[in-house]
Amino acid sequence: MKKVILTGDRPTGRLHVGHYVGSLSERVRLQNSGDYDEIYIMIADAQALTDNAEHPEKVRQNIIQVALDYLACGIDPEKSTIFIQSMVPELTELTFYYMNLVTVARVQRNPTVKSEIKMRNFEASIPVGFFCYPISQAADITAFRATTVPVGEDQMPMIEQCKEIVHKFNSVYGETLTDPQIVLPSNKACLRLPGIDGKAKMSKSLGNCIYLSDEADVVKKKVMSMFTDPNHLRVQDPGKVEGNPVFIYLDAFCKDEYFAEFLPDYQNLDELKEHYQRGGLGDVKVKKFLNKVLEAELGPIRERRKMWEQRIPDVYDILQAGSEVAEKKAAETLNDVREAMKINYFDGDFALN
Ligand code: ATP
Ligand code: MG
């Protein structure tokens, strides 16, 4: 069986460091491993419109921003197909058929949908399209016969729901769809990076992000304003590292060699944590170090992004060419789906029965 990756992002804003550690860096690693036959990376504009129907301009503008972030992080259009979801209408048709295989109660139980409805204050006014987005996500994954879906932890319930749809479809209509596997980051801190405000998840919609495109001085300002342990008031106080965003970011980004380079008093992160817990280590010192670590990681990404910003027409060419490749693949799967569902009426079997 072919090894195929499908993953993507909503063009609701530029991408942030949570995306980077949660999914983007893993994609680049898998892309460069050479282990995959096909890699599809989708800019999910149709999904973004499910909760931004009144802001199509926002979605439109962010398509290019997300594409620039991809290229800046090292997604290589020679190795990966980058495409725009709405340019592949087959996905909508698949969604429509899959809707019959899922109950309203099942979507209502999806923990990610639950928490996103709460976060957006939708209460009784949930757009039907938004409610159905886990089903459309199943269409995206299966259309490309994805075997591997590298995403952040918040997407786990989506992949579970997708697998249920695959099993249901295959049991009703015969073995047709491919069962996908989720790939989560191996580093626990990267599963769900908190916001700079300490909220559980860094998210474009919550405005608590460090963006990949932020200039060095903006990153520094954000890092210095970060939430830490609220009880660590004086330098001599013992501090908590669990749940402390500054340390979670260090867990996600820090490598031992950064200590030799930027903070030679310590060998590694364990020593730094130990000092913080013991007392006598101020937040400012830790934040300054985190800022240097982030700069070492984000500097090259920012530079590559600036290079691509000079080549916007080329970026659109990449998106258009990618969307054409993606549509071909999705059309093949849709054909198989129609055949399995016996809605291929004009394929030659004209018997009266
Ligand atoms: P929105 O608020 O519009 O939903 P978002 O910031 O949640 O935006 P998405 O486009 O929904 O971003 O998510 C894209 C990918 O990034 C998903 O695989 C998701 O799991 C991952 N991701 C998003 N935020 C984080 C985070 N804070 N930590 C780790 N992974 C994340
Ligand atoms: Mg999201």
From TrEMBL:
Signal peptide start and end residues: none
Keywords: Aminoacyl-tRNA synthetase, ATP-binding, Ligase, Nucleotide-binding, Protein biosynthesis
EC number: 6.1.1.2
Gene Ontology MF terms in the entry: ATP binding; tryptophan-tRNA ligase activity
One of the protein's GO biological processes: tryptophanyl-tRNA aminoacylation
PROSITE patterns xrefs: AA_TRNA_LIGASE_I (PS00178)
Catalytic activity: tRNA(Trp) + L-tryptophan + ATP = L-tryptophyl-tRNA(Trp) + AMP + diphosphate + H(+)
Keyword Hydrolase carried by entry: no
One Pfam short name: tRNA-synt_1b
SUPFAM superfamilies on file: Nucleotidylyl transferase (SSF52374)
Recorded GO CC terms: cytosol
Domain of life of the native organism: Bacteria
Keyword Protein biosynthesis recorded: yes
Family: Belongs to the class-I aminoacyl-tRNA synthetase family.
PANTHER family, per database record: TRYPTOPHAN--TRNA LIGASE, MITOCHONDRIAL (PTHR43766)
Name of the molecule in the record: Tryptophan--tRNA ligase
Originating gene: trpS
